[in-house]
Amino acid sequence: MKNSPVTDMDVRSSALGNGVSKKPVANRLYQTSTMAALLDAVYDGETTLDELLQYGNFGLGTFNALDGEMIVTEGVVRQFRAEGLAAEVPGSLKTPFACVTYFEPEKTFNIDRPQTKESFEGLVDSLVGNPNLFAAVRFTGEFERVDTRTVFCQCKPYPHMLEVVKKQPTLTMESVTGTMIGFRTPVYMQGVNVAGYHLHFLTEDQKRGGHVTEYRLVRGQLEVATISNLEIKLPRTEQFAQANLNPEHLSEAIRIAEGG
Ligand SMILES: [Zn+2]
Q1: Least confident interval from 19-23, 57-61, 187-191
Q2: Where do transmembrane segments lie in this chain (predicted)?
Q3: Topology of 107-227 in CATH?
């Protein structure tokens, strides 16, 4: 079966593997570096997009030098830079922070009435149940409004992320159709990842999007899966070695940086 395309059967059968195999595992979170490191300006990672895609076809993150927001849908990596315009990028690009999985929905829910960010998150929480597991989330449908932001490519010496986000370009899209995907991270993992919801958006025409800060949706399909299996690749770089990963007010800083 070498070199054959990944099928659902491959995904399921590989869940029985010994963890050494590169075969995809459904609903396992693969993460490079940590949110606390990104916050402390560790903007260069060692993982290429080609390597990242070996671990998932669904996810989000950013690029080396903090050069835009990343969304991964159906195995395609897209980069949102200023103006929120989406572009496909070469697999040789690297990422300092990304989270991917092979998303296999466990529950599907048809949303037929408008939801705010708060009511949508409450709905996902109730569908997922266990607050102490990660969850992968995908909503496909109509939005009354989506607010996104992107980040700019940074030059060395790298500024702290709280300085970067003060100048972040934002985009408001109204009456738009698209896909919002991402993860819910349990509170005790704050700093490793972003506690709570971290969602990125891609329009149906695949031309615009970014890191979601606010939204109101109208109707569509919600899919969720719980995640209890994590693999975190920590960088062996000097930047990471020198980073302060346990600063005071970590949660507040992440809230400001991620707009959650
Ligand atoms: Zn983001």
Answers
A1: 19-23
A2: none
A3: 60s Ribosomal Protein L30; Chain: A; (3.30.1330)
